[in-house]
Each structure stands twice: as C-alpha cells, then as structure tokens.
Queue: 2 jobs
Job 1
Amino acid sequence: MTETKGPTPATSRRRYEWRVVDIVVASVISVAVGVIFFAWSAGYSGIAAVTAAYPPLAGLYSGGWLIAGVLGGLIIRKPGAAIYCEVLAAAVSALIGTQFGMAVLLSGLVQGIGAELVFALFLYRRWNIGVALLAGLSAGIFLAVSENIMYNVEWALEFKLMYGVFAAISGVVLAGLLPWLATRGLAKTGALSSFAAGRTADV
C-alpha cells in the first residue's frame, strides 16, 4: 500500500519564498495603484468640501487608499506582499507629488500591516472572498486609527469613532470586494497563470 505523504518542510518553505516573478508583478501592481493613489488623493479636496458639515463621512472615501495591500496579497500570496505593495504604492504617489507628502509612507506601512495580519491569521492558505473582505476591513480600521492620530487629533471622540466605522465600511467594499473581483477577473484571462491565484478556484 502506498503511503500518502504531506508537504515536506522544504516544499512548505518554497511555498513562502518570493520568486523573481513575484517581485516583478508586485512592483508593477504597486506602481499602477500608486498612480491611482495620487489621483485619489487629488480628489480628496472635493470630498472634504462635500463632507464639511459632517467630516467623519470622508471615511467612506478612504478605502481607495487600501487597494494595493489587499490586491497584492491576493495575487502574490506570500508573506509580506500586502505590506510591500501598500508601501511601494504609497511611495509612488509621494514621488509623483501627492498633497499628503512623505507622510503617506507611514500611512502605507500601517495600512499594509492591517491587511497583512489577516492573511497571516489564515497562514497564507485561504484566499476566498471572506478573507479578502476581512483584509479590507482590517486595513480600514488601521487607517482610521492612524489618521485619527495624525490628522484628526482635534476631533471629538464621537467623530473619531464614526470615522472608524465609515473607513471600515469603505475598506470592506473598496479594498476588499473590488480587489477580490479584480483578482478573479485577471485569473479568468490567464494573466495570473504563473501564480496560484490563477490556478485555483478560491480567488
């Protein structure tokens, strides 16, 4: 009788190691989303004006800055992918000239950690829509906490809490659902054939 063996330590280790193609694709994703970040930041002035009567509503717009981490994590599926993509995308937007300056690097790190923690919680083994939504939710919460400290320090506690609620909702929809749909769409085109995301049904 043939004994079925599980993954060897070497196989498991290779599963988590970054390949050259991982670095290249993660970088391309980050640069592309970094341009989106720049455009998204440019539109924030209008959002701030619209939400002036109740500033916490601006949190509904914040999910656009969280896309890189979740998208990168879903496609690359390696430890550190969410942080790498979110920070690099933030750096690209800063180099282009976002109005928020180099402070976006710290924001990108915090937001990337928020998404990364969820992927790590599932040991980088589950990549379904539920995990994607949780990653977006976590990134949104991390964003809200950091921005309440960095930018909203003078707000009343109620405003800060509501900003967190709206940022979490935005994270789920814009940074969780949309990247999951994008990954699924790319997988169907064959563009992700070099990745597990393009060969499995749980994208």
Note: The longest helix spans residues 157-189.
Job 2
Amino acid sequence: MSGFNPGTALVTGASSGIGAAYADRLAKRRYNLLLVARDGERLSALAKRLKAEQGVEVEVLVADLTNRADVRVVEQRLRDDAAITMLVNNAGIGPKGKMLDDDADYLENMIELNVVAVNRLAVAAAQAFSKRGRGAIVNIASVVVFIPERFNATYSATKAFVLNLTQGIHAEVAEQGVKVQAVLPGLTRTEIFERAGGSVDNLPASMVMDVNDMVDASLAGFDKGELITIPSLPNENDLAQLTTARLALGPNLSHSKPAARYGVNVD
C-alpha cells in the first residue's frame, strides 16, 4: 500500500465532527488531504496529527463558505488542481429551533452555506472530474429530507436541495467516470447542536449515532456504489421501494390537459 496514491480529497467543514472524521478515514485510505474550514487553528492541529499518524500530505485552506469570495477560492482550486480526486461537501449548519422562532438572517446564512456553497463546489467538481475522467463527489444531506414536517422548514429544504442536486449530477456524470453519493445521516454526535444553541445530550441516546460509526458506514456505502446512503437504515429495500414509487409518477407528471379528477378543461 505504500505506493498507492488515490489522489487528494478536499473536505469542507473539516475542523470537527463529520468533516474531521472523513479526514481521518480518508487519510487511512492513503488520500492526501485539502482541509477547508473557518477555524485555522483546529485545522492545523488536525493536519499535524494526520501527517504524523498516516504519513500523507495535508494542506489547510482557511475559508468561510458563507462568504462567496471564499467559496470562489475553493471552487477555483477544484477546477485547477488535477490532483484532487474527491470532494466531501460537508460544511453546513443546523437550525436553532422551529422556523417560526428562528432569525431570518440566520436562515439566510444557512442557505448560503448549505445550498449556495454546496452547489458551486459540487458543480465545479462535477465539471472538472468529468473532463479528467475520474473523481468522486460526496454530498452530506440529512434524513430530514424524508420527514420535513418534523424539522425546521428551511433546514429540511436545504438538505432536500442537496439530495436532488446529487441525484441530478449522478445522471449527468455516471458515464464520465465520476462517482457520486448523497449521505443522509440521522442524529449524529457532533458540535452542530451546540453551535445552534442546543445540546446533543438532550436527545434520546438510542437515536444519536457516533460520528465515526456514521462515517464508516457512509464509506462502506460508497464502496458498494450506493448513490444514496442512509447509515441507520436497516433494510435497503425500503429506500428502493420509495425510489420505485417516485419514478412511477414520471409518465403522469406532465400532460397537455389537467387530470380528469380536477374537472377542468377535459374536453
């Protein structure tokens, strides 16, 4: 394995939580790393540890992905650096409570990070990797895409965007040598709750997954070639049935006349 070089993985939100766990696991897979986050001190500490433990090259890129200028810097690196073979699009923030009680500026910031930045980086990676004929894009979504009624409306909408984006990109790049995966974690033990003013300890322990277990399961799904990975889902047929039902709508989603059940313009 000493001569094996899968390339460089760019991981956003890498200073803690899911991003840091991905960095650790990918370093063990011999990826060199480009770690992106706002907290340069924590990134540098993680980089130093992974270099020492795994002997891989680790570069730190301090960027605030709610700032569009910073997003452009990371985007350009994806486009220009042919050594980058994987994007882990992980950076994101969660809600502080119900949408009706949340601050509109905070929700807009959430959209900047969870949607605008994710989209630009995923598109840049898809375009660059397709031209190179290899690469992988991992977008971190959430299980809330399936139960939006139970969560902050803006947050669940941002994660639905990530899932749809991933599925759409896959349809365009699957034949270009690019792997794409959407990871849909459930509740995961990370700092995202504290940053939103809550605590993971207030949640039922039986519903909260260890972050390393979550990432290990996600990488196992990646190795299996899954387009959508739900680490806590026991039966993969449940997701397959949902996909089949969704696709079955296809032939009837667009006709020249309204459905007869509406009783309008059906002559």
Note: The chain has a mean pLDDT of 93.
